[in-house]
Amino acid sequence: MSTPIASPAPPALLARNLTVSYNDVRALDAVGVSVGTGSICGLIGVNGSGKSTLFKALMGLLVPAAGTVELYGRSSREARQRGLVAYVPQAEDVDWDFPVSVADVVAMGRYGLMGPSRRASAADRAAVDAALERVGLSGLRRRQIGELSGGQRKRAFVARSIAQDAKLLLLDEPFAGVDRSSETTLTALLQELRDEGRSVLMSTHDLAGVSQLCDSAVLLHNRVLARGRPEDVLTPSNLALAFGGALEIREP
Amino acid sequence: MDLLTWLTEPLQYGFLTRALVVTIAAAVVSAVLSCWLILMGWSLMGDAVSHAVLPGVALAYIVGLPFSIGAFVFGAGAVALIGVVRSTTKLKPDTVIGVVFTALFAAGLAIVSSTPSQIDLLHILFGNVLGVTDGELWQVLILGAVTLAVVLFKRRDLTLLAFDRTHAHVIGLNTKFLSALLLGLLALSVVVGLQAVGIILVVAMLITPGATAFLLTRSFDRMLVLAVGITVAASLAGIYASYYLDISTGAAVVLAQSLVFTVVYLVARPNGVLWQRLRVRRSRRGPSARAHVGDEPAGAVS
């Protein structure tokens, strides 16, 4: 595991020895993941490999049987209360018929910074406008969220993280249901965010995308099969371990 | 009889004016809450809470407490009981809800039947809005105002909770508290509504206006306004229908709401069933001109 030891600042994300079981099935077995500040880490694994469980453990939505989570050197709870973490859900976890506009969704990124009635201040409105502008959705701000395309929907949720000014973005399958040109836009956006010093952990099936976009990768199959630079992780033998027979590599 | 006389004649009776005030107040509170309940998928929870308050109402009458205290204690108690059983078993939520509310409803019936002279069961079950006392009127108005104030103050958090609970958690909001708050408000609005239409039908006021408004708009703020408008119109129509046609007030109000829902379901654009049929027929006649493009809104029209 290549945690930069020389740097005094703690990494954006440091999970050690995370162990989670559902009934008798072990979803995570002593999983360790680290994401350096200003880097993008790809989390790769088949369905049921524990990616969603890992996200839940990182966000404090479930309590692991063992292990620790530190986000920027703080507990998950403290990091959340400081607005350091943002989550971009996968498409099937969102009610796309919900009567909210694109701008409403982005404004939800500011709620942690607002008063108890979440009434938007001028600064909140400016942050929402800037985030929409940045992801190229200013013209669609009044649309109901489900009236966007797959790629635009993802960008709306990334805009929510930008409005929140989150330092660590957790993205669950950001490229699922997104066409090629939107994928390029989204990739560029994530790279920009990284270059600003934000950190990203994203789960994905898209192996070609990982080697293009990610600084590091973790291959998960309820335990960590491999981690490190994408080209070292995505070797045929590792992938055969993680994906078994169901492997399909899309060439870039 | 001219229209003005037709409209004002019922109002010369004090009991009818009180009925009108109670019904509209209860309907507005329920309609506002219904917008969140239908988005949370909590309609069955509304049904459960309303049935579960029966023993509370009965006991309150027996010991001489205001009905609203007994109803709220049992409504909130039912919610808590459902929560406990859900979190300690692997039963599906609707199963737990079904077990708990029928048990409490049966307990209520048992209590009422063992003290027949003191309580009129039919009034509790089906409402007795024409017999509302001043004390009951004030309970409805005060509880209704409190419920409405809290809902509107926390409306953005409640919408976030319904839309994306994970995000609410990740930005540090207390989602358990918000869920409990919404359930508490649900119990309060059941208490407010049962004077108007009774335990059995109060759930209609907690579902139908929000459901109707949902069919009409894709904006939450407009949904709130429409739900309130629909419920006020239906309440007025119901009260007058009840006076002139001599039918049960609670039934008339709920029927009026259902009628609005039916009309909206059939004709509202673009989701009305009639328009969809028409579109299908038209597209069958000629080949569709619309090509499917990859990056088109997915599932925008369902």
TrEMBL record, chain A:
Cite the Pfam families for this sequence.
ABC_tran (PF00005)
InterPro entries the record matches: AAA+_ATPase, ABC_transporter-like_ATP-bd, ABC_transporter-like_CS, Metal_Ion_Import_ABC, P-loop_NTPase
SUPFAM superfamilies, from UniProt? P-loop containing nucleoside triphosphate hydrolases
A molecular function (GO) term: ATP hydrolysis activity
Reading the lineage from the top rank, the first entry is: Bacteria
Keywords linked to the UniProt accession = ATP-binding, Nucleotide-binding, Transport
Indicate the segments forming the ABC transporter domain, all copies.
13-247
Family the entry assigns:
Belongs to the ABC transporter superfamily.
| Designated name of the protein | Metal ABC transporter ATP-binding protein
Provenance organism? Arthrobacter crusticola
Automatic annotation (TrEMBL), chain B:
Q: Which GO terms describe its biological process?
A: cellular response to iron ion; response to zinc ion; transmembrane transport
GO CC terms of this entry: ATP-binding cassette (ABC) transporter complex
Main localisation, per the record?
membrane
> Known CDD domains for this protein?
TM_ABC_iron-siderophores_like (cd06550)
Q: Indicate the transmembrane segments per the record.
A: 20-39, 59-84, 96-117, 137-153, 173-191, 197-216, 223-243, 249-268
Instruction: List where in the cell it is found.
Output: Cell membrane; Membrane
Question: SUPFAM superfamilies annotated for this entry?
Answer: ABC transporter involved in vitamin B12 uptake, BtuC
The record describes its membrane topology as: Multi-pass membrane protein
Domain of life of the native organism: Bacteria
One Pfam family this sequence matches: ABC-3
Keywords annotated in UniProt: Membrane, Transmembrane, Transmembrane helix, Transport
Similarity remark: Belongs to the ABC-3 integral membrane protein family.
The protein, known as: Metal ABC transporter permease
Q: Which organism is it from?
A: Arthrobacter crusticola
Origin organism lineage? Bacteria, Bacillati, Actinomycetota, Actinomycetes, Micrococcales
